[in-house]
Design goal:
Length: about 100
């Protein structure tokens, strides 16, 4: 599970755009998406159900950090969660995030 992540030199909106562009060419992009809602980044998984993982955004210097705040995981996603979040963590890292997993 992704516990938190931090980006040193990007706004949340710019980071989400980079991640979305990275996901577009991957199989993961067919089921995973990110969006900014109020002061949260929402990661959505949708295939055979819908899951949301919500991270609270805190601006820090030229970047920001995100901490896991809540989630709604579809029953059909529970078994695959570790694998999918592991792949997503790699995409976040490839776009400049430092990810902390539990």
């Amino acid at each position: 599970m992704i516990k938190s992540f931090a980006v040193e030199s990007s706004s949340p909106a710019d980071f989400i755009k980079k991640v979305t562009d990275s996901l577009a060419g991957r199989e993961l992009g067919k089921i995973a998406s990110m969006s900014l809602k109020e002061n949260n980044i929402v990661i959505m998984f949708s295939k055979l159900g819908k899951s949301e993982v919500i991270f609270n955004v805190k601006n820090e210097g030229n970047g920001f950090s995100c901490t896991h705040s809540s989630e709604k995981i579809a029953l059909t996603h529970k078994a695959l969660r570790g694998d999918i979040e592991g792949k997503l963590a790699k995409v976040l890292e490839s776009n400049g995030a430092k990810v902390t997993e539990s």
